């Protein structure tokens, strides 16, 4: 496998990592909340966009690749925040399996 080169100086986006917490609502369901875990430096690379319609409202979903220094504790289902933007983590991978960087495939929905 070829080594992936990423200049660490490109990790210029400050992101906040959130984890989802579900608490019982007393009626058999669960209330969802997001809790801040830590701040991270990352590089955000837009990949594609797709238009959609939900409940008669048009929107756009933008797919991003988010590059970070390697961490074993980031999994699909978490999310990144950058100001008002929310990037839902869909998949996490080590691009060259050397534990130097991870790449997260994320989706951002327009509001």
Q: Characteristics of this structure?
A:
111 residues, mainly beta, Thrombin, subunit H, six-stranded antiparallel β-barrel, 6 strands, 0% helix, globular, Phage head-tail adaptor, Phage_SPP1_head-tail_adaptor, SSP1_head-tail_sf
- Strand segment tally: 6
The first-level CATH class is given as Mainly Beta
Low-confidence spans: pLDDT under 50, at least 5 residues? Answer: none
The fraction of residues in strands falls at: over 45%
Element-by-element helix/strand order: EEEEEE
Backbone structural class: mainly beta
Descriptive report:
The chain is an all-beta fold and 111 residues long. It has a single domain, classed as Bacteriophage SPP1 head-tail adaptor protein (Thrombin, subunit H). The chain is 0% helix and 65% strand. The protein contains no helices and six strands. It has a six-stranded antiparallel barrel. The radius of gyration is 16 Å and the shape is globular. The N and C termini lie far apart (40 Å). The model has no long low-confidence stretch (mean pLDDT 90). Pfam families: Phage_HCP. This is Phage head-tail adaptor. It comes from Agrobacterium tumefaciens str. B6. InterPro entries: Phage_SPP1_head-tail_adaptor, SSP1_head-tail_sf.
Question: Can you lay out the helices and strands and say which pair or pack?
Answer:
Elements: E1 13-24, E2 30-54, E3 57-69, E4 79-82, E5 85-93, E6 101-109
Antiparallel strand pairs: 1-2, 1-4, 2-3, 3-6, 4-5, 5-6
């Amino acid at each position: 496998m070829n080594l992936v080169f990423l200049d660490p100086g490109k990790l210029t986006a400050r992101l906040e990592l959130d984890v989802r917490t579900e608490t019982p609502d007393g009626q058999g369901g669960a209330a969802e909340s997001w809790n801040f875990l830590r701040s991270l430096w990352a590089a955000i690379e837009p990949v594609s966009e797709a238009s959609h319609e939900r409940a008669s409202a048009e929107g756009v979903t933008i797919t991003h690749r988010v590059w970070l220094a390697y961490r074993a504790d980031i999994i699909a289902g978490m999310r990144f925040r950058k100001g008002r933007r929310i990037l839902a983590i869909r998949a996490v991978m080590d691009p060259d399996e050397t534990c130097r960087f991870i790449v997260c495939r994320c989706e951002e929905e327009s509001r």
